[in-house]
Amino acid sequence: MNELTIAMPKGRIFEEAYQMLIDAGFNLPEEVEMSRKLMIEIPEEKIRFILAKPTDVPVYVEHGVADIGIAGKDTLLELNRNVHELLDLKISKCYIASAGLPNTQMNEIAPRIATKYPNIAMSYYKEMGEQVEIIELNGSIELAPMIGLADRIVDIVSTGRTLKENGLVEYEHITDVSSRLIANPVSYRMKSERIQDLVSRLKKLVN
Ligand code: PRP
Question: Is 102 in the pocket of ligand 1 (CB under 6 A)?
């Protein structure tokens, strides 16, 4: 049996996805000592997990240092990496929306959009026929309209609490997001039996 390297996002998604693998019948220790370890070997299953920043998972998978990985649809749309999307795991569901201060219009001449998803935002407004200026930020996006940096933000909404607590309202629902199982195209061919087995076991849990 070939060894399978799986790139996993650190944090909450890791826990949910790891539990899914246990539920799918993989013989994994119930408790993993996370500490600061970035690699976990499971010799019984010939599986090796590498723990990455969520946005780096598609990078590891594209370069083939991980055969498969778990990545948010938001990251996949934004980075557009050369990976196969195998399965919607339907976990970590949220969506991308535009938001801003209530009852405000976008500046007509050069509306400014703050986001950590410049590509998603740019293609959305292009599709809408709006010419916008994108201001790329790395976090606390909700601040931008509050301090006059942008007319709108394009960001993840999960519970809606961050928008509400900062006095912002949603304007447009852009796209739904959930975690996806992705594969390196070469690994998908070379290790097809193992990967297909994993996909069909996880598929049963999703449906
Ligand atoms: C994300 C996102 C929103 C928030 C949405 O931020 O950018 O700010 O979660 O969640 P909610 O709808 O449940 O309030 P994250 O926590 O990743 O932190 P960030 O500000 O550093 O991006």
Answer: no
